[in-house]
Amino acid sequence: MELVLSSILEKLQHQPNSSTLSTICFIIISILCILRFTRRNNKFNNLPPSPPKLPLIGNLHQLGTLPHQSLKALSHKYGPLLLLQLGQTQALVVSSSDLVEEIVKTHDVAFSNRANTKASKVFFYQCKEIGFAPYGEEWRRKRKLCVLELLSTNRVKSFQPIRENEVLMMINSIHEACTKGSSVNLSKMIAATSMNISSRCIFGLRFETSDDGRKSIVEVVRKMMTQLSKLGVGDLFPSLDWVDVLTGFTSRLKDMFVAGSDTVSTTIEWVFAELANNPKTMKKIQEEVRRIVGGKSMIEENDLNQMKYMKCVIKETLRLHPPGPLLIPRETANSVEIKGYHIPKKVTVYINSYAIHRDPKLWDNAEEFIPERFEGNQQADYKGIGFQLIPFGIGRRACPGVSFAVASLEYVMANLLYLFDWKVPNNNGALIDMSELSGLTISKKHPLYLEPMPYLIC
C-alpha cells in the first residue's frame, strides 16, 4: 500500500492544479487508511469475513434491488457468516442451516431481540407490538396472550365459516369469468380474498377492496372508530386522543394482518405460477384433491389433512419462494462467539432463508421445483424442524401465526384446484415469468393471469 501511495504522490507532483490534486490525494489516502484500519480491526477482533466497503455507505451499494439474492451471491463468495456495514448499521448475514441451528440451540436468547429501525418504529408503534418488541417479560406476556387468545388451534378452527364464506365469494367471481371465457387476474383475486379473511377474523368487518385489490387497513379501523363515536364513546372518555388510539390500535395489528394476508396470497400466487409451469405436477395435485373430496360441492376442513401431496407442493413453494426471505431482522443482545468468530453486541442479524432453501448441500437440484422431495421427509416442516426449511422463522421469535396462515392457505388453494382447471391464456409454450418484486413480502413482479375452466363434479 505504501508503494501505491508513493507512486500516486510522485505523479501528482508534476500536475499543474495543486489544489485539486491535493484534494484527490487526500481522498485516496483516506480511503486506503480506512481499508487498512478495517482489515486490522477485523483481524484483531476475529470478526466474520466482510466484502470491501466504500466510505460512508459501506456495503449498501452491494444490496441491489433484491437484497436476498445479492446477499446469497456475497455469501457464496465470502462464506455463510458475513459481516456488512450498511451505512451506520453493522449487520450480520447468516446463510447456513448449521449456523442457524447453533444460534437456536446455543445462543437463542442473545439473538432474540429485534432490530429497532426507524421504519419499524414508524410502522409498528415504536416497536411495542409483538413482532418488534424487545425480548423480555413484556414481550413474553404479549406473545402468550396472542397465541392463547387469537392464534390457538381452537380459535383458528372457529374462523372456518369465515374462510368458507370468502372463498365462496371468490369462486362465484371466477365462475362469472368462466361464462365470459376470459382469464382472471388470480393475483388480485387471491389478495382480496386473503385480506377479507384476515380482516373479518381480526376486526369482524369485511375488507373493502379497491381496483387493485388493496386498501389501507386504517380505513377499516376508522369505520370502527366512527361507529364508536356514534355510540358516544368519545363523550364517555373525553380525555382520550382518538387519533392516537386509532394509530396505536392499527399499528399493533399490522404484523398480524401482514402475516395473515400477504403471506397467504403471495404463497398461493407462487404456487399457481409454479404449477402452471409444471403441468404434470398440476395434474397430480388435482387428482389427489378431487379423489379425497369425492364429488362434494365444497371442500370440508377435515379433507385437508389427507392431502399429503398438496402439503408437499406448499412446502416446495415456500422453499423456493419464502414470503420474507431475510426473515425479520434481529439484534444481538450481547457479544457471542460463533464458529470461532466474534459477533459484537448490537449487531443487526439477517437470516437469509432464501440462501438456505437453495443450498445445494441441503437440497438436490436446489433450483428446481420438485415437491416429491418432501414425501416422507418429516425433518422439513413449516416450523423449521431440522433448520432446513424456515419460511416462518425459528426459535423464540418464530412467527406465532403459522397455524392461522396455513389454514387459510390450504383451504383457498384446495378449492381453486378442486373446482377449476387452469391454463395459461394465449399459451405459445413459453413459461410464466417468475421475476420477483421486493416489498414487505416477495411477490411476483407481474400479476398472474390464468384462464379457469369449471370442473364438472359428477
From TrEMBL:
<protein>
    <submittedName>
        <fullName>Phenylacetaldehyde oxime monooxygenase CYP71AN24-like isoform X2</fullName>
    </submittedName>
</protein>
<feature type="binding site" description="axial binding residue">
    <location>
        <position position="399"/>
    </location>
    <ligand>
        <name>heme</name>
    </ligand>
</feature>
<keyword id="KW-1133">Transmembrane helix</keyword>
<dbReference type="InterPro" id="IPR001128">
    <property type="entry name" value="Cyt_P450"/>
</dbReference>
<dbReference type="GO" id="GO:0020037">
    <property type="term" value="F:heme binding"/>
</dbReference>
<keyword id="KW-0812">Transmembrane</keyword>
<dbReference type="InterPro" id="IPR002401">
    <property type="entry name" value="Cyt_P450_E_grp-I"/>
</dbReference>
<dbReference type="InterPro" id="IPR017972">
    <property type="entry name" value="Cyt_P450_CS"/>
</dbReference>
<keyword id="KW-0560">Oxidoreductase</keyword>
<keyword id="KW-0479">Metal-binding</keyword>
<dbReference type="GO" id="GO:0016705">
    <property type="term" value="F:oxidoreductase activity, acting on paired donors, with incorporation or reduction of molecular oxygen"/>
</dbReference>
<feature type="transmembrane region" description="Helical">
    <location>
        <begin position="20"/>
        <end position="38"/>
    </location>
</feature>
<dbReference type="Pfam" id="PF00067">
    <property type="entry name" value="p450"/>
</dbReference>
<dbReference type="GO" id="GO:0005506">
    <property type="term" value="F:iron ion binding"/>
</dbReference>
<keyword id="KW-0472">Membrane</keyword>
<dbReference type="InterPro" id="IPR036396">
    <property type="entry name" value="Cyt_P450_sf"/>
</dbReference>
<keyword id="KW-0408">Iron</keyword>
<keyword id="KW-0349">Heme</keyword>
<dbReference type="GO" id="GO:0004497">
    <property type="term" value="F:monooxygenase activity"/>
</dbReference>
<keyword id="KW-0503">Monooxygenase</keyword>
<comment type="similarity">
    <text>Belongs to the cytochrome P450 family.</text>
</comment>
